[in-house]
Amino acid sequence: MSILGTGIQDGLLLKPIQYQWAYDLYQQAVANTWFPNEIQLGQDMSDWKKMSEEERHALTFLMSYFNPNELLVNKALALGVYPYIHAPECHLYLAKQMWEEANHCMSFEYVLETFPIDRNQAYASHVEVPSMARKEAFGTKYIKRMTEQKLDITTTEGKRDFVRNLVAYNIILEGIWFYSGFMVALSFRQRNLLRNFASLMDWVVRDESLHLKFGINLILTVLEENADLQTPEFAREIKQMILDGVEMEEQYNKDLLPHGLLGLNADYVNQYVKYLTDRRLEELGFGPHYHVNNPAKWMAAANDVLQLVNFFEATNTSYEVNAG
């Protein structure tokens, strides 16, 4: 049995587990369960009051992007991934991931409720700021191919569209764009600002590290089980999708940091994006493309999926449901 399939009565028995990696990730995700209101975000208000307009703009801009896109990821999972897989251990993980995306949305709502951010303006930015709207249009294009057009997962082209959707969401949106934003968000803590906000982001990043690991495993499994997808042309197309994503992120980061912050500007963030992208390309079996150094050594633990998971297991186990 392959991992792909649409039979309603297939995949109704969990054991024996066929894809142990999916089951293990589900167990880890359950252990990582957390709730945003357990962080005393209000304690960061004194920092907000002394932050510059540029700093406040950056935080607001991040919330404007993250908030709707967490829900967009859920649509991609529910409409573009879940229906085309019949391995029950994968369904377990995807159900937990969808809950986590909802929890992240509520976390960013908590940020919007805590700080005096103009919610209407923040909400409007994802359609009114061209660089942000362009990223969103990129993502919605792939969901539409899964929903508004018929996708036949038994055909080579249908399977390609399935992989394209995974690359768009797991690799580009979650694995590069989100991580770029995480770095900017966590950079405030590097300057001793918004420490509680950073703790909230730590938990989001921990979840996203598992999302990324699941997505990479799923992509590689589909490619391994379907020889008809293993062509140089399709590989070139996938790599180009990822490089196009980098170009979109470069424009977005110029709007995020138009004048730069102390120790942080668009060029710095975009070098980090290129460094991240090389890691994602390597995880998918490509060679690196940009060959740049990591400018944010303090984010080293977040650059590699396995390293990140191990990092949190080592240093953040105080928030494991079954701990103690």
Automatic annotation (TrEMBL):
Record-linked CDD domains: RNRR2
One Pfam family linked to the record: Ribonuc_red_sm
SUPFAM superfamilies noted in UniProt: Ferritin-like (SSF47240)
EC number: 1.17.4.1
Membrane-crossing residue ranges in chain numbering: 166-188
Family that this chain belongs to: Belongs to the ribonucleoside diphosphate reductase small chain family.
Name of the protein in question: Ribonucleoside-diphosphate reductase subunit beta
Gene behind the chain: nrdB
